Amino acid sequence: MKNSEAILVTPKHFEIQECPVPEPKENEILLKVEYVGMCGSDIHGFEFGPFIPPKDPNQKIGLGHEVAGEVAAIGSKVTKFKVGDKVLIEPGVPDNTCDYCKTGRYNICPGVDFMATQPNYKGALTQYMTHPEEWTYHIPEGMTTMEAALVEPAAVGMHAAILGEARLGKSIVILGAGTIGLMVLQACLSLGATDITVVDVIEKRLDLAEKLGAKRVINGKEQDTVAYLRSEELYGDHGVELVFECGGSVFLAQQAVQIVARGGRIMMVGTQSKPVPIDFLKINREVTIQTSFRYCNNFPQTIEAIATGKFNVKDMVTNIYDYKDVQQAFEDAIDPVKKTEMIKGVVKVSD
Ligand SMILES: [Zn+2]
Predict the structure, then answer these.
(1) Residue % of the chain over a pLDDT of 70
(2) pTM of the full predicted structure?
(3) Which of 124, 119, 186, 196 is nearest to 155 (CA)?
(4) CB of 320 within 8 A of CB of 147?
(5) What range does the domain containing 123 cover?
(6) Ligand 1 centroid to 60 CA: how many Å?
């Protein structure tokens, strides 16, 4: 058995390097990687280097954390899995000891060991990797390994939708229809919501949002989003009960403030890399602003939603690259023209 890993040697430059096949510890599986999803954070890391730079300048930087494949070996104490099982993994391993973990909020555990970030920068763009059995899931019948690799970003949407209390009867607006916005859309739909408006400026994304089940879409370049949503024909003076910011944009965050209803909720899902000035006078009628981070106990329900056809991740995949073309994959993802065509890219590491 041979192994290799895609290492980011400098920003914008991957090198596929040979490396040893890791030995699973007693509670770990050895995963033969099949598909890896390209996350916005990986693409950002490729372009600029990691969000949190490593302390050691010789630290190898791997990317990728949306991953599924086949069990190639198991540690001596593994009981849930056997060699040959198709599995997907949850890429954050919390410490299980802090107050957050103990109170069931492991997604905000400060001691979490999350893939492709500090302290280990261990990426999924590799042929073989180990992972704890506890954070590994079976892929059910009818779900492909490629779909399984997209459970992770889908779970981000599921967590945000549940935290935001999306349900049938609520008016919902999703600002930003990139991967995460479209995942939030589908999570809201799978929870029963129907009155969902999706806003973006890229027609291809809006077409997909409609196909996936949005009630209406708004192209923010062609229409005044706030005026339209606030028109008598739509939500008028009342406003929108639940607004998701999924673009990581100051502009969209400020739009959220302008459209949210009294007593409504703004879910901040996108990563805001700059401070956002908020006019609190506009939302002084008991509006909740809530950030959402990764996911917490959402993998089983997300797997169920995808396996039963309530949640369509397959149609979000616009680009599939071979592992040997990983450099090209990420170059395309940062190319100003090509990136507008890419909704979700995946890397096929093996069959
Ligand atoms: Zn913890």
Answers:
(1) 100
(2) 0.96
(3) 186
(4) no
(5) 3-150+313-348
(6) 25
